[in-house]
Amino acid sequence: NLFTSWALRMRTTERTGSHGTGFDTRIRFAVVSSNALYIVNQVIGWVYFVAWSISFYPQAWENWRRKSVIGLNFDYLSLNITGFICYSIFNIGLFWVPYFKEEFLKQNPNGVDPVDANDVFFSLHALLLCLVYVCQAAVYERGGQTVSRISCVLLAISWTFALVSLFVAVAKVITWLDYLYYFSYIKLGITLIKYIPQAHMNYRRKSTVGWSVGNVMLDFIGGSFSILQMILQSYNNNQWGFIFGDPTKFGLGLLSVLFDILFLVQHYCFYRHPRQYEPFGKIAASVHVRQISLLTPTNQYQRGGQTVSRISCVLLAISWTFALVSLFVAVAKVITWLDYLYYFSYIKLGITLIKYIPQAHMNYRRKSTVGWSVGNVMLDFIGGSFSILQMILQSYNNNQWGFIFGDPTKFGLGLLSVLFDILFLVQHYCFYRHPRQYEPVGDHE
Question: Which phi-psi region, left, alpha or beta, contains residue 259 (left: φ > 0; alpha: ψ -120 to 50)?
């Protein structure tokens, strides 16, 4: 396998010692396995940079076109501005301030400055566009929306942390470089939560009108290519630390991709036929539109007003928060990556322990299994039974009975599914054999 050395950058730094003032020259080499892959990686970097940079314009255009910011959540906007202020401070400090660059080299003698010119431009450009959103919110119709108390508290905590850390740095308890890195951590923390208010607002309104899908698509492209670049760079240089070397960049890419997928699902699946946006002053026309819409089929299945319960939302939030926190714990090398991988099997096992309970309880309350496929239950029963049978036969054949419990997720999945399938079959064929006849809405005379 041929390897090629590329001189990435050369630094000349001034040093002062007992023998006078001199200069140290550092030449940074990177060993790459493929020159073509190196070039492709550079192209990918510019693609996600351009995608992320222009992703802010569709929302500004949408606001201007509608002369309204209804649909754009103010909590998201306020958190986003704070995040990009912190990100800009971090980038400017590491890219332009010589003191921070020298401190970084002292702590990382063989390291490469993680901030490039395009990072500085992106953060400042994003901050400018967010300020444009603020100006639009001040001028255009906003429907009485304000920043929530929760967001105000979070913003106060962020800036209080930055202010307290400033005095701690002045007292020389921490270095100024550590203080600069605290701004990147604030940005990362905001990235973890900033999309939640917008997603929740879309859910409450049952609509994505006012939230630009063009912005979401470009942000998805940027995040995906950002992660792809880090993976290819790690592979090409055989240094997998590149993936987590810049936690802000990695967190920004991963979180944006996950939430962009949620926004695309909301836009194209959940809320494909939202209520039409109506600016103030067209009340009479809106009444007519609503009367017509009552007679128009919605092309959606009837669901009886059912929604996901608060308990399930809390459990899902706990599961994904645990996975996300464990990711950063693994990055910090507190646990091994194998342990982190096993955590997903434990999450799956925990969900398997409880996921059937809501359906069984719903059947009990309705005194019916109508709408819950007994075919699904039977096939799941067969799958779970054969899964357990396979482990028993494998343990007997290899004379190693540890096979039964060697894969706790598989064993738990098989056993729990079989037990609940038996319960569902008993409900269907014994308890609720003659349920009340199902009548869709509108069939009553």
Answer: alpha
Residue whose C-alpha is closest to residue 87's, from 52, 41, 43: 52
Q: Is 239 helix (H, G, I), strand (E, B) or coil?
A: coil
Which residues touch 144 (CB under 8 Å, ≥6 apart)? Answer: none
Closest CA to 127 of 69, 96, 95, 88: 88
Q: Are 165 and 182 in contact (CB under 8 A)?
A: yes
Our measurement of the distance from residue 424's CA atom to the centroid of its chain's CA atoms, rounded to an integer in Å, reads: 35
- Convert the pLDDT of each residue in 27-85 to its tens digit: 555 566 677 777 888 888 888 888 888 999 999 999 999 999 999 999 999 999 999 99
CA torsion sign for 301, 305, 306, 308 is positive
CA separation for the pair 376, 371 (Å, rounded): 11
Q: Determine which helix (DSSP H) or strand (DSSP E) holds 183, and give its type and residue range.
A: helix 176-193
For 241-252, b/e burial (b = at least 16 CB within 10 A) is ebebbbbbbbbb
Is pTM beyond 0.85 here? no
Strand partners, 32: 4
CA–CA–CA angle 320, 321, 327 (5° rounding): 90
pLDDT value, residue 8: 44
Burial of 307 (0-12, 13-18, 19+ CB in 10 A): exposed
How wide is the angle at C-alpha 208 spanned by C-alphas 206 and 210, nearest 5°? 130
DSSP state of 141: B
User: SS3 of 105, please?
Assistant: helix
CA–CA dist 32, 164 (Å, integer): 43
- What is the C-alpha R_g of the chain? 28
Q: Which residue has the tokens 């990695």?
A: 250
Is 176:169 a contact under the CB 8 Å cutoff? yes
